[in-house]
Specification:
Blueprint: E1 2-6, E2 15-19, E3 29-38, H1 41-48, E4 66-74, E5 86-90, E6 104-108, E7 112-114, H2 121-124, H3 128-140, E8 148-152, H4 157-168, E9 172-177, H5 182-187, E10 192-195, H6 200-203, E11 209-214, E12 226-234, E13 248-251, H7 258-269, E14 277-282, H8 286-295, E15 301-305
């Protein structure tokens, strides 16, 4: 099979396409024929060596933390999947850095969920990482009717899902995004919009903010807008502020969870979560997709197609 691999750390040009044997699933595992694999910040970090200290020594690493595809082979003891089933999943990549930039991938059966009905695999592949991360953030924010939640990076992958999930909980959602994204974030359920180049402290002086979900990684300065005893949800530990005024500061990060992913699939099928694809690239052009990702300004996801 074909796989795009990292044999040395560096820029997009270090990504190489090689031929490697199709892996076999062990007990409790499933072999999936990959239909689509989105490009993620974690993939970029893997390529540049951000996780080098945590990776087991290997001849090469295969990036790709999420995917959509079809079940190709079942390992011993797997009873919840059927050959040919369309599935999506999130890979525990740091534990075993052989990801979805390949024709096939082996994953634990419990990370899988059925792909949303009525959605092609390209769009379905964009749900696992950002959906699970946004869901964890909204839960940590305790979003509910009567609360006001501020979401930064609201036009992005995690932020867009966070807006939709928080709005579905009944909360008032204030979205922070680029000046041209007002219509987009309102279509996702935001009640109010603030352009990211405006002063948040000034705009929110008279607004009671119960929780901030900082998907744009704006960092510690943003805690000033949260009410006493409120919540601040960071996506990365380095940009989490110190707690003050009894504010609960939480850092949420993704973890494979097939059961929760299946619940998010139900929201997609009910029309309550919007899947957004910006552009697709052949797997062999993964370097070009990485270069485009690093330029920024992408609305929706860049997705690699093995076929």
């Amino acid at each position: 099979m074909r796989a795009v691999v990292i044999q040395e750390f560096g820029g997009p040009e270090v990504l190489r396409s090689i031929e490697t044997p199709v892996p076999s699933p062990g007990a409790g595992e499933v072999l999936v024929k990959v239909g689509a694999s989105p490009v993620n910040p974690i993939d970029i970090g893997a390529r540049v060596g951000a996780f080098a200290a945590f990776l087991p020594p290997r001849e090469y690493y295969v990036p790709g933390i999420e995917f959509a595809g079809t079940v190709a082979e079942l390992g011993a003891g797997v009873t919840d999947s059927t050959l040919g089933d369309p599935v999506i999943g999130l890979i525990p990549w740091l534990a075993d850095p052989v990801g979805s930039y390949a024709d096939y991938v082996v994953v634990p059966a419990d990370v899988l969920a059925s792909a949303p009905r009525g959605v092609d695999l390209v769009a379905a592949a964009t749900l696992p990482l950002n959906g699970i991360t946004a869901d964890a953030a909204v839960r940590a924010a305790d979003a509910q009717a009567g609360h006001t939640v501020l979401v930064t990076g609201a036009a992005g992958g995690v932020g867009g899902y966070a807006v939709q999930l928080a709005a579905a909980s009944g909360a008032r959602v204030i979205a922070v995004a680029g000046a041209g994204d007002a219509d987009l974030v309102r279509s996702l359920g935001a009640t109010d919009f603030i352009a990211r180049d405006e002063s948040l402290a000034e705009r929110l002086r008279e607004v009671r903010i119960d929780a901030v979900i900082d998907a744009a990684l704006l960092g510690p300065s943003l805690i000033t807008v949260v009410r006493d005893g409120g919540r601040f949800i960071a996506l990365l530990p380095p940009v989490a502020p110190e707690s003050e005024r009894d504010i609960t500061v939480s850092t949420v990060q993704q973890a494979p969870d097939g059961r929760r992913l299946a619940e998010l699939v139900e929201l997609v099928e009910a029309g309550r979560l919007t899947l957004r694809v910006a552009e697709t690239y052949p797997l062999a052009e993964a370097a070009a997709a990485h270069a485009r990702f690093e330029k920024g300004g992408v609305r929706g996801r860049l997705v690699l197609l093995p076929n």
